[in-house]
Amino acid sequence: MRKYSTMLLSLLMAGSLLSACGGNNGNTASEKGGDATTAPTNAATDNSSGTDAAAKDDITQRKVTIKIHYPTPDLTEIRAQEDDKIKRFQAEYPNVEIVKDDWQYNVNEIGIKMAANEAPTFFNTFATEAKFLVEKGWVADITDLWNNYEHKDEINPVLQNQFIIDGKVYGVTQKGYVTTTMINKKLLDEKGVAVPPLDWTWDDMLNTAKGAADTKKGISGIAPMGKGNEAGWNWTNFLFEAGGEIQNIDGGKVVATFNSDAGVKALDFYKQLRWEANAIPQDWALGWGDAVGAFQQSRTAMVMAGSDGVIEQALNQGGLKPEEVLTYPMPAAEKGGKHTGVLGGDYLVINPNATKDEQEMAFRYITFDYFSEKGLDALDAVIKQREADGKFFIPPLLDYFSADSEFGKKTKAVYDKYTNVYQYNPEIMNLLDGKPEAQYNTQDYYATMSNVIQELFSKKGTDSKAQLDAAAKTVQEKFFDGIKVQ
């Protein structure tokens, strides 16, 4: 689940172009009989027909209009970068007219957009939405385009596999994340709280949050998200760390399983943060922007989210220094346990109502800078401009390419040229354990769990098991019972 648009780095670093569709290479000469004087005339006519057919089959010779996913007005810097990409793309494909559309994917709006035929030719979405969009018929099957893409085997498989369903491809990864915990070391230092070990546990998180909290100054030790679907999303990390699952498939049916012993354990931990440690904000009804904003303003010592969005705001808007913003994996429930975090990401999908030409050009646009030297040049220019502006550049924790690939090494070489690129602790990659979000009605589950979290934060002494049983019953009857898994 992603709640911000600034993480469109892959729109700067996107990859290599597809080769143009081949024309008719065969000679379709007529086999009519004739004397020697008529043969050359027929041959000339046939060659002309072949040339015309080749031109007709070449998509670069046909006028195509695509409506692209475009950043919102507040993202002026990202818009400038996208405009540069449009300029370079149209230099390569002058036959393509590009229409900008800054609509951002919303699960409550996509159906209306599709019914009114107003959705862009391609649009952004989240990892959770794959099965939902496929089952609704709101995303194109791009398997053929994917199979003809020369760099398909270099794409990060952990991310790309989220949009490969039953062997068919329905989207292209931009970048991804495993939920992390961001720590404001400055606040810890001010309270004399030791930085926890990287291989930390729930107890370490509890003690750190308790020690860093300063209620008199309005500073919380940790800011778990408490409103919107974000609240359920944040809590799900702890469900996973405790060994729980959101749902299972049993006999072709989707069954809610988050009301397990693991779920109770995870909910009880939230109760400890709220009532035992008094470590969460007094005004706990925080969405993604609220919680990240509190971290940016040094009003909370910890926040849980995809790392790059938090770091971007903390360094470039909050004025914190890179050494004061620490990226940690999610804590393990117990020593020796897994540091499991929700694995999510940003994807671009193509409108099934678009024509074949529009779909192909949309695919070419999406992958235009992927794995290309021009993409690296664009990345270099962005970092250099940020350096000139006195800003930091924050790479995504997981990118569309594999970090150990040749292109990954080239990208790292660009990063290493500059001192304004945020550097992750390399040891974190050995601890991260990403777990994909559930594929059926995940947002509905998140919303239901948000109500549970709000009740827990507002009322002392809630019964975790009773809360989860009621939530599971709601999710099961309202959403899961209507699903038939083939």
Automatic annotation (TrEMBL):
<dbReference type="Pfam" id="PF01547">
    <property type="entry name" value="SBP_bac_1"/>
</dbReference>
<protein>
    <submittedName>
        <fullName>ABC transporter substrate-binding protein</fullName>
    </submittedName>
</protein>
<keyword id="KW-0732">Signal</keyword>
<feature type="compositionally biased region" description="Low complexity">
    <location>
        <begin position="35"/>
        <end position="47"/>
    </location>
</feature>
<dbReference type="InterPro" id="IPR006059">
    <property type="entry name" value="SBP"/>
</dbReference>
<feature type="region of interest" description="Disordered">
    <location>
        <begin position="29"/>
        <end position="55"/>
    </location>
</feature>
<feature type="signal peptide">
    <location>
        <begin position="1"/>
        <end position="19"/>
    </location>
</feature>
<dbReference type="InterPro" id="IPR050490">
    <property type="entry name" value="Bact_solute-bd_prot1"/>
</dbReference>
